[in-house]
Amino acid sequence: MLEMSHFVDVSERAIVSLVGTESLDLLQRISTNDVAKINAGGSAQTVLTNEKGRIVEVISVLDRGEDGLLAVGQSSDPVALKQYIEKYIIMEDIILEVLSDQMTHVMLFDSMQNVADVIHPSVLRECLIFDEAFSTVRLTHVVVGSAFRQVVLKELLAAGVVENSQSEYEEFRVLNGVPGFPGELSLLYNPLEAGLLPLVSFTKGCYVGQEVVARLDTYKKVQRRLVRLGMKDLPAELPEKIYHEGQEWGSLTSAVRLSGTLECRGLGYVRTGSELVPESLCFHKGTEAINLVVES
Predict the structure, then answer these.
(1) Residue 121 scores a pLDDT above 80
(2) Do 18 and 95 contact (CB within 8 A), yes or no?
(3) What does residue 275 show for φ and ψ, rounded to 5 degrees?
(4) Positive or negative CA dihedral for 137, 143, 147, 148?
(5) In order of start, what are the domains of the chain with their CATH numbers?
(6) Which one, of 267, 107, 281, 97, lies nearest residue 182 by Cα?
(7) Which of 168, 191, 153 is nearest to 74 (CA)?
């Protein structure tokens, strides 16, 4: 475990604003979670899926009151996020705008500090702060106009919050089983396979892909799941096929070498029940079979 709070700059992530009285109704209609319950100043995580129930994007919806909503994604393609939402606007009076290039977005992980106690109140008024949860991991996000970038970074650093690189965050992410885009969050997988069950409402009514996701849950038809994996070496490329006794068994989607060690860890999708064969999985690197151990 890290001994202090850390943050990483994720300003490349998609941010799209929605302005119009029907904006929340639209997101309620096209995403998996019950976002209609958000209050002004609040946020909620939800998944955008296609008609087959596969993951298009995982977003946090922020209610800014009279300023409308923000949809903050995991990907670095705000245009794709905007176009997906636009596709479902029929008669609604909603204006969408890409804001990624106007905002600074930092994310605190393994945080031991309350952001509100770190940033001066005069700056805090300009910030949008929200949490995301993936399994047992809590990630705290700070989104602020680019004009306040240096002030926010300075205050985080002055409070002892350590700035990490993307590769350092990637190590944390993989070790803690946090799905990322595009490895684990993509059109190849559905929310139940990705461990995003808390972001799916089975009581709110219809949304895009709802019938498929509900059927998978009702009839226990989820055939693969996202797991953490241990290995002695990294694959030559990603994704990499996972095998069990010569049969294709899944896909290795993320992999890192742990800092200062020869140990490697990864994330991947494997068939349900793979915990029963924890030492019989492998991937091929040239002529060598690299064994994989399911850790969760």
Answers:
(1) yes
(2) yes
(3) -65, -15
(4) negative
(5) 6-175 (3.30.1360.120), 223-294 (2.40.30.110)
(6) 267
(7) 191
CA terminus-to-terminus distance, the chain: 18
Amino acid at 45: Q
The conformational region for residue 170 under phi > 0 = left, psi -120 to 50 = alpha, else beta, is alpha
- Which residue is associated with the tokens 């939800």? 46
Region 5-30: mean pLDDT is 97
| pLDDT tens per residue across span 64-88 | 999 999 999 999 999 999 999 999 9
* 244-266 pLDDT, tens digit each: 999 999 999 999 999 999 999 99
Q: Rounded to an integer, what distance in angstroms lies between the CA atom of residue 149 and that of residue 105?
A: 9
The H or E element that residue 173 is part of is helix 166-175
Nearest-angstrom CA–CA distance, 248 and 29? 37
Tokens of 137: 């991991």
**How many CB atoms are closer than 10 A to CB 238?**
15
Burial 2-27 (b: 16+ CB within 10 A, else e): eeebbbbbbbebbbbbbebeebbebb
Q: And the tokens for 83?
A: 């176009």
166 vs 176: CA distance, rounded Å: 15
Nearest residue to 181 (alpha-carbon basis) of 81, 32, 103, 97: 81
